[in-house]
């Protein structure tokens, strides 16, 4: 059966209804999905029935999976990240629990695993428990950074061209000081990296996108600390423009998949103490560094 889909917006996102990610998927359909996500960057597979194992089996068909940096934040599979204010045992966690604080940090614009030298390629997030319709917040919002770059003023494109941002997993503690310190082994495994603010995409005819985050640092390298913070703040405000956005309103058992190379995302804050929200995520490793305007691309 051919995969049938409907567009969400003209620039980002499709919905697929006639698909079961829990079963073995043939190469032809995986190729179709790769083509669709290359073109539309975000896919929502409706009405799935997944657990950790079946989610990982599906995700592995798109590449090698990342292991999460902090083993105590996972339970059964180190490749699964619990995006939840609910424990693996089903308990509603308090707002000051480190696992919940990490979820709050995800309300800042980011792309997954930007703290790695090869940042994540795809993320796949499955909604096990979602907020009731009357609740405020809880959506996952995306920003198309290809569009955001294209819409930049010429003088800003020129200003950004030589600049990088430092991405540090440990620096999440600077933004969220209540989190416990990382172990020496965890720090050594994920030292800070830098990525260019303008990303070049060889597989998209050398098109360009913005590439920065707000959940690992709030500054830009290549200028003074003050100037870097001001520029970062300008960029965050700039991408608040709704014409770049897709907002996913969750339905139970949705599986969403997105391309981290061209989309930023964030969770819209909600009442963490009142509502339960439980999702599991698998992440496909990137295979290349972030190419910038001055990279030597073979």
Describe this structure in words.
This protein is α+β, with helices and mostly antiparallel strands and 298 residues long. It has a single domain (5-284), classed as Clavaminate synthase-like (Double-stranded beta-helix), CATH 3.60.130.10. The chain has helices at residues 27-40, 52-59, 98-105, 145-150, 154-160, 172-175, 184-189, 225-238; strands at 5-7, 14-16, 42-45, 81-84, 122-129, 140-144, 164-167, 193-196, 198-201, 207-210, 245-248, 255-259, 263-267, 278-284. Helices cover 22% and strands 21% of the residues. Strand 9 and strand 10 (207-210) form a beta hairpin. The longest helix has 14 residues, at 27-40. The strands form 4 sheets. It has a 7-stranded mixed β-sheet with strand order 1-2-3-12-5-14-4. The protein has 8 helices and 14 strands.
Overall spatial form: globular
Structural class: alpha+beta
Q: Can you say what the CATH homologous superfamily is?
A: Clavaminate synthase-like
**Please, what is the average pLDDT?**
93
Instruction: For the largest sheet, list the strands in their spatial order.
Output: 1-2-3-12-5-14-4
Q: Which value, in Å, is the CA radius of gyration?
A: 19 Å
Poorly predicted tracts of residues: none
- Counting structural domains, the number is 1
What is the CATH C-level name? Alpha Beta
Would you count the extended β strands for me? 14
Distance between the termini: 38 Å
């Amino acid at each position: 059966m051919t995969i049938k889909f409907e567009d969400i917006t003209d620039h980002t996102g499709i919905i697929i209804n006639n698909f079961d990610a829990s079963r073995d998927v043939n190469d032809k359909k995986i190729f179709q999905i790769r083509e669709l996500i290359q073109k539309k960057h975000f896919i929502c597979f409706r009405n799935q029935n997944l657990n950790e194992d079946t989610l990982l089996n599906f995700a592995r068909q798109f590449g090698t999976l990342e292991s999460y940096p902090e083993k105590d934040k996972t339970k059964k599979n180190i490749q699964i990240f619990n995006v939840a204010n609910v424990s693996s045992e089903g308990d509603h966690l308090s707002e000051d629990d480190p696992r919940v604080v990490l979820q709050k940090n995800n309300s800042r614009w980011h792309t997954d695993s930007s703290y790695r030298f090869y940042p994540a390629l795809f993320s796949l997030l499955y909604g096990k428990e979602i907020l009731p319709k009357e609740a405020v917040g809880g959506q996952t919002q995306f920003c198309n950074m290809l569009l955001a770059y294209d819409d930049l003023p010429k003088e800003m494109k020129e200003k950004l061209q030589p600049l990088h941002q430092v991405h540090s997993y440990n620096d999440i503690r600077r933004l969220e000081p209540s989190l416990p310190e990382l172990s020496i082994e965890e720090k050594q495994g994920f030292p800070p990296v830098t990525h260019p603010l303008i990303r070049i995409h060889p597989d998209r005819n050398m098109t360009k996108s913005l590439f920065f985050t707000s959940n690992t640092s709030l500054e830009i390298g290549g200028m003074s600390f003050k100037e870097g913070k001001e520029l970062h703040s300008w960029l965050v405000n700039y991408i608040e423009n709704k014409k770049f956005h897709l907002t996913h309103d969750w339905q139970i058992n949705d599986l969403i998949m997105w391309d981290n190379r061209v989309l930023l995302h964030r969770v819209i804050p909600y009442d963490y103490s009142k509502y339960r929200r439980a999702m599991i995520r698998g992440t496909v490793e990137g295979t290349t560094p972030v190419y910038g305007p001055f990279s030597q691309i073979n």
